[in-house]
Amino acid sequence: MTDVGMTAVNEAFGRALDAVNAYLNHWLEPLGLLADEVSAAIEPASVGSLRDEDLAGLAEGMIRQLEASPDVIGHGFVAAPDVMSGLEHYLLWFQRRTNGIRRLKLNLSATDPDLYDYLDTDWFAGARRRVGPVLYGPYVDYAGADFLVLTIAVPVMVGERFVGVAGADLDPDAVESALVMRLRNLPGDAVIVTEDRSVVASGSARWMPGERLAAHPSSEPDGWLAQAALAPWSGWSLALAAPA
């Protein structure tokens, strides 16, 4: 390819990279707002003695966010251990179902073998470890949504203390459609992949969502016209190959 041709490719790739990053980052705004609302609702001295009713005022905003965002399946707050009085696990989480928006009820009893133990999940533990946003999936959330989701979580801090995460479960099909729209004008076959090489979206039929590439584009960049990491918190990359 000529220098002029590669310049055009790189310019188009840069525009697509910006568009995809803008789409990913726009999900952080409502989660950041929720994290701030949860933090404001918790007095530092009350951490460890909080009860469900202390956070009840947050429910209306969670429901409004779900009503305003058809691509969001679930939305809410997930507490760290010893934040709620007498509870190691606690969720104030609302979910969209066919019969409307309902609060999610899961088995959170520490003595039950069917406990939904979210503490070691990639999205919860990742947000806690990084003290920043994380994206995990798509994956089948058997215990929570019971279908395929993408989860974004941001840490909730009260002072210097991590008290949980504000999170959202996104519909992967809706996310894929939104991403494909931003790849359509690229002069080649574009693909968005996770750190483990799983395809999230593709601008052509060359790759299908869920397929795993033989090698990550960052490890073999010479095989691509262009490749770059997307928003660092996402762990995703965008790569462009010559048309097959």
Can you tell me about this structure?
There is one protein chain. The protein is built from five helices and ten strands. The chain is of the alpha+beta class and 244 residues long. It has two domains: 90 residues, Beta-Lactamase; 146 residues, PAS domain (Beta-Lactamase). The chain has a six-stranded antiparallel beta sheet, sandwiched between helices. It has a four-stranded antiparallel beta sheet with strand order 8-7-10-9. Strand 5 and strand 6 form a beta hairpin. The longest helix has 24 residues. The two termini are 15 Å apart. It comes from Nocardioides panacihumi. This is Cache domain-containing protein. Pfam families: MCP-like_PDC_1.
Question: Which terms summarize this structure?
Answer:
elongated; 5 helices; 244 residues; alpha+beta; 4-stranded antiparallel beta sheet; 2 domains
Looking at CATH, the homologous superfamily of the largest domain is PAS domain
Major beta sheet summary: 6 strands, antiparallel
The total of beta strands comes to 10
Hey, roughly how much beta strand do the residues contain? 25-35%
Based on the structure, what is the oligomeric state of the protein chains? single chain
Which runs of at least 5 residues are low in confidence (pLDDT < 50)? none
Supply Rg: 20 Å
How helix-rich are the residues, as a percent range?
A: 25-40%
Class per helix and strand makeup: alpha+beta
> How many helical elements?
5
CATH class of the largest domain: Alpha Beta
Termini gap: 15 Å
Query: Quick one: overall form?
Result: elongated
Mean pLDDT reading: 93
Tally of discrete structural domains: 2
Order of adjacent strands in the largest pleated sheet: 3-2-1-6-5-4
SSE order: HHHEEEHEEEHEEEE
The third-level CATH topology of the largest domain is: Beta-Lactamase
The CATH architecture of the largest domain comes to 2-Layer Sandwich
Pfam families: MCP-like_PDC_1
Protein name: Cache domain-containing protein
